[in-house]
Design goal:
flat; 5-stranded mixed beta sheet; alpha+beta
Length: 171
């Protein structure tokens, strides 16, 4: 019984030694004021049956991205790559602007939120809409920019390029 009591007291003191009471003298971290979009990427996702389970497959879309910081506009020309590996013609034919997944790189510690019915990033969405806007809030919480996403078009590559062959090897 005494041994159990001593172990509990010892455990209490060990736990207390790992806690901190420091309340002042802490270094102030920088508060970032940037609310920019730095990169935008699109991909198509589908499931493939393998044995008793399904496996997620991802094909990155090639895209020419023009980011205009002054006008807070991101203009994209998306290219659906040629057939390769598990990205068969049947799967490729299903790729449209209305079923893509997108994600972007934004300023350090900033947050991004879709406005209205603009598709949420990181989820499959409809990028065929004409008025897509995202609000980027800087880490300081004060700087806010509204970015417009414009999809100028989508085209389909008819034969693989070296870039597509490398992507096929990496999938």
């Amino acid at each position: 019984m005494k041994m159990k009591y001593l172990k509990c007291i010892l455990l209490f003191f060990v736990c207390m030694s790992f806690s901190s009471c420091l309340e002042s003298g802490l270094e102030d971290l920088p508060s970032y004021e940037d609310a920019d979009i730095k990169a935008f990427t699109f991909e198509y996702r589908w499931m493939v049956k393998e044995g008793d389970s399904e496996k997620l497959r991802v094909q990155k879309m090639d895209a020419d991205i023009d980011i205009n910081v002054e006008n807070t506009t991101v203009t994209c020309n998306i290219t659906v790559p040629a057939v390769n590996g598990t990205f068969t013609q049947e799967i490729r034919n299903q790729v449209t602007l209305s079923n893509l997944n997108a994600y972007c790189t934004i300023s350090t510690a900033a947050t991004i939120t879709p406005i209205g019915d603009t598709p949420m990033l990181g989820k499959i969405g409809d990028f065929s809409k004409s008025d897509m806007q995202y609000e980027v809030i800087a880490a300081d919480g004060n700087t806010t920019k509204t970015w417009k996403l414009v999809i100028d078009g989508v085209k389909y590559v008819t034969r693989p390029t070296i870039k597509h062959a490398v992507n096929a090897i990496n999938t």
